[in-house]
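Re: magnesium ion structure - here you go.
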Amino acid sequence: MRFSKFFMPTLKETPADAEVISHQLMLRAGYIRKLAAGVFTWLPMGLKVLHKAEAIVRQEMNLAGCLEVSMPMAQPAELWQESGRWTFYGKELLRFKDRHGNDYCLGPTHEEVITDIVRREVRSYRDLPLNFYQIQNKFRDEVRPRFGIMRAREFLMKDGYSFDADDEASADSYWRMHEAYQSVFRRLGLDFKVVEADSGAIGGSFSHEFMVLAQTGEDTVVSCDACSYAANAEKAEFALPPLPSAQEAKESGGGFEAVSTPDCRTIAEVAAFMGLPPSAFAKTLIYLADGRPVAAVLRGDRALNEIRFKNFLGAAELVLAAPAAIAQLTGGPHGFSGPLGLDIPVYADWELRLAGSWVVGANQADLHLQGVDLRRDGPKIEWSSLRLAAEGDRCPRCGAALGFARGIEVGHIFRLGTKYSASLGALYLDPKGQSRPVVMGCYGIGVSRIIAAAIEQGHDENGIILPPSLAPFTVVVTPMALEGEVWEKALTIYQQLLELGVEAALDDRDLRPGVKFKDSELVGIPLRLLVGSKGLEKGQVEIKERRSGKVSWVEAGQAADFALQFQSRPC
Ligand code: ATP
Ligand code: MG
């Protein structure tokens, strides 16, 4: 590609509305432009990078035996009504009507459509297993689109679905995808961790997320360096310290007393008012679990693990109660809820059994209770481990200290069991002639999010740094003049590169060399071949590696070979 014929609107200034480095650099490098909130156009330079990620994903899926299909983005409501998700999916599902008044949605994922294909086409166990995938734009009307293409509303996803005769075969399909995903992310040169994720109703170890480690990640990765344990925040377990003996627990003795806490609604406010640390408090959160009120009680400085709590209750939906409902259920205003005297089920975090004196809300305005021993004062309380893991917690497997890092979820694999095949009637006949629902798995990769994640991990003050497997070009040939011997040599090397199959660009724009250098660094081209008269006097060209900044010289005749070697190096 000759840059004089290319479209590369690079920017010097950092765009004000881009918060994270990947978003800033993708705008500056002319990779993307925003059309609306969370909706972007990919410009030629960015699209090259996106296509390279897509090609690696496609190759690895094909190698793993998956079959590519392309399903429609617009999907009729009927299918979603059959699966029950038309009402359940919520506002992320963008719904619209066609000219005949029929309800449609834009596909945020395609379980319904692919299951519809299978229920129509698959008859017998002989037709199984099947594993389909597509690489296609998804639309999710995200509540807070942000960080550019990292959390977009329209984005490119690889979604795959496996169909097997039984659980055992489905597990094989799952683990094959687990392998294939690791190959994908390794080839993309990403520093990633595979973490256990919540597998909902299916249970077991059949949900994993693939996390690219980066400060700007929206997810928390909990892991143990001493063994291989790694999980996302919701799934992460931790070793529970031993409970005090019954005797010790009894000895807490005494009783509790009321303390006036005017206008102190939050833990921070009441802690400051009473001069106690937040860890001296037990906070009470009122939730509706499938509409049924429940209270969760945990230490003031802890966060509730909502997924674990929801699973523990066996609820499909868990939402915080609104202030009006709280007032009605507890008799006190929002901010003063406490576990004593409530008429609803109360679940307390296991940790609150470790000590016998807590400050809790009194279910009355401007009042707290001090010296509460939940073991003594809350006989109906049910105990369970309800909080998220935190600094200082220990590994559930080996007891070493757990580490916490930020991660960007770039892939997710999940066992679905017969959730969709049962509701949509995707059945097959087993060898005995019995009709059974097919057993499914689903597998997603955020292809466009990968680009942002790779840039979060690969950049410096001059711009984007990508491995050749993702870079828009492997090498740019930069001539110091656009005429004479320098130009002729640059052209020859450029042509040699193309003949060898190296992804090469020729920066033949009539611009100062400094501007060209800046651009090639900004857009993330891993190698620059500089052709100048000084080097050519010795028959050499200068090579600069983007990542290390290392400069070396090669014979002009060897330059193309050097770039070819570079391009074929594994990440
Ligand atoms: P998240 O928790 O980040 O919203 P998700 O659990 O909703 O992700 P999945 O439904 O598992 O995501 O989708 C598969 C993959 O698609 C994710 O692992 C992620 O890489 C990507 N993805 C999901 N939502 C977005 C988005 N809004 N923008 C870009 N990529 C996304
Ligand atoms: Mg999501």
